[in-house]
Write a structure and sequence with these properties.
BirA Bifunctional Protein, domain 2; 332 residues; transcription; BPL_LPL_catalytic; 25% strand; EC 6.3.4.15; aa-tRNA-synth_II/BPL/LPL; alpha+beta; SH3 type barrels; seven-stranded mixed β-sheet; repressor
Length: 332
C-alpha cells in the first residue's frame, strides 16, 4: 500500500483526499493515517491538511535519495507491466545474486527484483570481487523464468547492458556506451558490471538471475581499478534518485526482454546494440588462453558474438567466455 500511496501522491497535481485513498485501497482512515506516518518516518515530507488531504513535498536536500531508498520508493517508481513490481530490499546482504538464486529455488514471483544498500560478498565475472560501498551505488538482481534454450540465456547479459545504457541516457541525458559484451562505459571508464547466472533442471532452465552493479555516486575507487572505473556522479556532476534510475533501467529491460523472447536471440535488437557498441569500427586487442591478436570490431551477430576483421581481411566471431577484448590504447 505504501508504494501505491507514493505513486498516487507523486502523480497528483494537488492534494489527494483521505476519502479517495480509503476507497481506493478499501481501508479505514486510520489505516491511511498509519501508512502516512510510516512514510514520514522513512524520510518523506508529506503534508496533510484537514478537508484537503495529503501532498508529497519533494524537499531539496541535495541528495535525491534522502533516506528514502527502499522497497516502497523503488516500487512506487515502477511503470512496468510485471518486472520489478515485487521488490525485496536489504540494508545489507552477502550478494543480491545469491539472494535472488535462493528466491528462484523458492519459485518466487517472476520479475522479482532484489536490491541491497550494501553487499559484503558482491562478485563480478570470473569470480572477481565487486566493491560494494554503502549508500552510493545500485546493487540489484532480477529473477526470471524464461522459456528459452540454455544456449540463449547468456545473451540476456547483453540485453541488460542495453537496458542500463538506455536507462542512464533517459535519466542523465548523457551518452554512455557498451564495451563488448556487457560493460557499460562512460568517458572511457567502466561504470557498470553485469553478471548473469542460471540454474538448470535436466536440460531446461529453472531460472535466470541477472545481477547489476552500477556506480552511481561513488567518488573513491581502489588503486587497482582507479584508471578504468568511474561513477555517474564523477563524470556528470549530477545527483539523481537511485530509485528513479532503477525504474528506468527495468522499464527498458522489460521492453527489450519481451522482444528478445520472440526469437530467443538478438536479431531484432542487434542494430540497437551495435549503435551503443564502443568497439564497433575500433581496433581491439583480443586475448585468449592460446593466442593474442589485433583486429577491428564490426559489431555483434544474432547470438551476441563479436564480429571482428583480422589484419588479413578475414572475419571471425568471438564468443565471450574466457576471451578478453581491450582497446589498443586503453580500457575501451
Amino acid at each position: 500500500m505504501k508504494a501505491e500511496i507514493l505513486r498516487l501522491l507523486r502523480e497528483a497535481d494537488d492534494y489527494v483526499s483521505g476519502q479517495f485513498l480509503c476507497e481506493h485501497f478499501g481501508v479505514s482512515r486510520t489505516a491511511v493515517w498509519k501508512a502516512m506516518e510510516q512514510l514520514k518516518k522513512s524520510g518523506y515530507a508529506i503534508e496533510g491538511i484537514r478537508n484537503k488531504g495529503y501532498r508529497l513535498v519533494e524537499a531539496d536536500t541535495g541528495t535525491p535519495d534522502a533516506n528514502r531508498y527502499g522497497k516502497a520508493e523503488i516500487e512506487s517508481r515502477m511503470t512496468t507491466k510485471y518486472l520489478g513490481r515485487q521488490v525485496v530490499f536489504f540494508a545489507e546482504t552477502d550478494s543480491t545474486n545469491q539472494k535472488a538464486k535462493l528466491f528462484g529455488e523458492e519459485r518466487r514471483e517472476n520479475g522479482t527484483l532484489v536490491v541491497a544498500e550494501h553487499q559484503t560478498l558482491g562478485k563480478g565475472r570470473r569470480g572477481r570481487k565487486w566493491e560494494s560501498p554503502e549508500g552510493e551505488n545500485i546493487y540489484m538482481s532480477l529473477l526470471l523464468y524464461p522459456q528459452i534454450q540454455t544456449s540463449s540465456a547468456p545473451q540476456l547479459t547483453l540485453v541488460m547492458a542495453m537496458a542500463v545504457a538506455k536507462g542512464i541516457r533517459e535519466v542523465y541525458g548523457t551518452d554512455v556506451g557498451i564495451k563488448w559484451p556487457n560493460d557499460v562505459v562512460l568517458s572511457g571508464k567502466k561504470i557498470c558490471g553485469i553478471l548473469t547466472e542460471m540454474s538448470l533442471e535436466a536440460e531446461f532452465i529453472s531460472y535466470v538471475v541477472i545481477g547489476v552493479g552500477l556506480n552511481v555516486a561513488q567518488q573513491e575507487f581502489p588503486q587497482e581499478i582507479r584508471d578504468k572505473a568511474t561513477s555517474l556522479l564523477l563524470e556528470t556532476k549530477k545527483s539523481v534518485s537511485r530509485s528513479e534510475l532503477i525504474a528506468e533501467v527495468i522499464r527498458h529491460f522489460e521492453d527489450l526482454y519481451e522482444r528478445f523472447l520472440i526469437k530467443e536471440n538478438l536479431s531484432d535488437l542487434r542494430e540497437e546494440y551495435n549503435a551503443l557498441l564502443l568497439n564497433r569500427g575500433k581496433e581491439v586487442r583480443i586475448s585468449t588462453p592460446k593466442e593474442e591478436y589485433t583486429a577491428t570490431g564490426l559489431g555483434i551477430n544474432d547470438t551476441g558474438e563479436l564480429l571482428v576483421r583480422l589484419e588479413d581481411g578475414s572475419e571471425r566471431a568471438i564468443y565471450a567466455g574466457e576471451v578478453s577484448v581491450r582497446g589498443l590504447y586503453g580500457y575501451v
